[in-house]
């Protein structure tokens, strides 16, 4: 492990979160002006076996994937105001643009028909289901978080242009050239050493399940919502009678439906199952180390993936306000989250952008500070006491600048 003395408080916060029982295994990495200044990891990668978290332990980071998908898409799509039908003629809603897909305005946050398990790795087949649906609202008139469908929609547009999946393009354009340990669709060797996700702190259970909406009546939400705490059990703020908290308890809510199909929970172990780790869903499929995810943002803000003017346009707020799915305020650029109730950042991080993932994982870049951060863990948040683990670490980083 390494921590520049300027960031000693970051190391202290990291250790405190283990000492108070908030963590099982986790890693946090920070680049400042291209230099790795924080590289921390600790704890247990698999509590069933006691396997330790190592420097190269990757973790499934759910919707942190969306930022990678956005970067790839913006590298191949020349005009985001183009109608989706320009690239995907079978797409049913002629008025939908690529910008609508990237900003969660398409009105397609749910796959209406149940996706069978045997189709989980057939991304074009899932996209075809969405192409035949009618939007729940007129595209461009509102936004609502497309938790899983974002990736199938944007990924299919990219596939129609390039003939290649998001996962293969991430490998060829991002991970490979920049030597980053991240995969959208992990090989077996990576799966074998990946951290195993759980919602519990200790004591090996007969089975850890991660992914999909919670059973009705058992959902819960954190106090305030940490960056990336985006499953239905986490999207609501206290008190418990807020619209978001009530939606989390309703299995038929748009919030739960958006996360429940395709249903990771249908597989033994949920998101720990190799089918999910291999599938490379472009909305929730990345397996990464903290150093690898932070390295993506380091490269992105340095102009290594998109020209600086293109990145500025990508992170410009396109939508901001009530989210029809999360029932909280959210804000998005072109695939990137901006500071809001669902992407908490310190006051000094007004220029930050990035994306979180279910349970608390986070990737963040701030060009104004030359800063890139990432946090991954295997104990998913999921109760009303909340999880501000990533937020505390990022706040300590900004305090040290």
TrEMBL record:
Pfam families: Beta-lactamase. Residues 198-240 are annotated as: Disordered. Keywords: Hydrolase. SUPFAM superfamilies: beta-lactamase/transpeptidase-like. InterPro entries: Beta-lactam-related (IPR001466), Beta-lactam/transpept-like (IPR012338), Beta-lactamase/esterase (IPR052907). It comes from the Bacteria. Residues 13-395 form the Beta-lactamase-related domain. GO terms for molecular function: hydrolase activity. This is Serine hydrolase domain-containing protein. It comes from Nonomuraea typhae.
């Amino acid at each position: 492990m390494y921590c520049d003395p300027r960031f000693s408080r970051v190391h202290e916060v990291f250790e405190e979160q283990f000492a108070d029982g908030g963590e099982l295994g986790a890693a946090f990495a920070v680049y400042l002006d291209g230099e790795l200044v924080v590289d921390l990891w600790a704890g247990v990668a698999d509590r069933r076996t006691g396997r330790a978290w190592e420097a190269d332990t990757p973790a499934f980071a759910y919707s942190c994937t969306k930022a990678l998908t956005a970067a790839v898409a913006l590298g191949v799509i020349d005009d985001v105001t183009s109608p989706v039908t320009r690239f995907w003629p079978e797409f049913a809603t002629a008025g939908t643009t690529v910008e609508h897909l990237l900003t969660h305005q398409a009105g397609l946050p749910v796959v209406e028909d149940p996706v069978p398990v045997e189709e989980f790795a057939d991304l074009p087949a899932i996209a075809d289901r969405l192409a035949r649906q009618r939007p729940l609202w007129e595209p461009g008139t509102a936004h609502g978080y497309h938790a899983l469908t974002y990736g199938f929609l944007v990924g299919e547009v990219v596939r129609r242009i390039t003939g290649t999946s998001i996962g293969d393009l991430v490998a060829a354009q991002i991970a490979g050239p920049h030597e980053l340990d991240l995969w959208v669709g992990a090989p077996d060797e990576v799966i074998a050493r990946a951290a195993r996700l759980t919602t519990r702190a200790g004591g090996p259970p007969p089975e850890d399940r991660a992914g999909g909406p919670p059973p009705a009546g058992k959902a819960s939400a954190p106090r305030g919502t940490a960056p990336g705490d985006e499953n239905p059990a986490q999207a609501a703020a206290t008190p418990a009678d807020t619209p978001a908290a009530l939606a989390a308890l309703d299995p038929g809510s748009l919030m739960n439906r958006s996360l429940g199909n395709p249903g990771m929970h249908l597989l033994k172990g949920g998101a720990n199952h190799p089918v999910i780790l291999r599938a490379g869903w472009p909305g929730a499929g990345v397996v990464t180390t903290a150093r690898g995810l932070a390295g993506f943002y380091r490269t992105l803000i340095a102009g290594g993936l998109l020209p600086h003017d293109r990145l500025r346009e990508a992170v410009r707020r396109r939508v901001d306000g009530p989210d029809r799915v999360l029932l909280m305020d959210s804000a998005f650029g072109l695939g990137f989250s901006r500071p809001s109730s669902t992407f908490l950042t310190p006051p000094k991080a007004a220029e930050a952008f990035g994306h979180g993932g279910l349970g608390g994982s986070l990737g963040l870049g701030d060009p104004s500070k030359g800063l890139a951060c990432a946090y991954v863990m295997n104990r998913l948040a999921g109760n009303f006491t909340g999880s501000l683990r990533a937020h505390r670490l990022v706040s300590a980083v900004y305090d040290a600048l």
